[in-house]
Specification:
Layout (H helix, E strand, L loop, with lengths): L2 H8 L2 H33 L3 H21 L4 H33 L1
Helix pairs in contact: 2-3, 3-4
């Protein structure tokens, strides 16, 4: 019998709702500042806000990925860091291409 099965065998309706409220509280604590920051970026970004919003969500996603992988061991962490570096390089190339396209359109 696994720990997962034991947990659900012992879970009562009260524990279920208590866990539900805890999950909601943690979700709000994490997501509200991120959504507020994203709204500020959209307001501040002007005409090209989508580039800044895209970069913000990329950074948040990468940070969350690294934080979630911290307990899996050094090998997995190195692989994740290499993948993140590759994603950042691809993102920089895409941003440079977008900037070149914008410059060419206005010339």
């Amino acid at each position: 019998m696994t720990l997962f099965n034991i947990y659900f065998m012992l879970q009562t309706l009260g524990f279920f709702f208590k866990d539900l409220v805890k999950k909601l509280a943690v979700m709000l604590v994490i997501s509200l500042p991120l959504v507020a920051a994203l709204q500020y970026i959209i307001k501040w970004g002007g005409q090209y806000f989508f580039i800044y919003a895209w970069l913000f969500t990329l950074v948040v996603t990468l940070v969350c990925t690294v934080v979630c992988q911290l307990d899996t061991g050094a090998v997995h962490l190195i692989i994740i860091i290499i993948i993140i570096i590759i994603i950042i390089i691809i993102t920089i190339i895409i941003i440079i291409v977008i900037i070149i396209i914008i410059i060419i359109t206005f010339i």
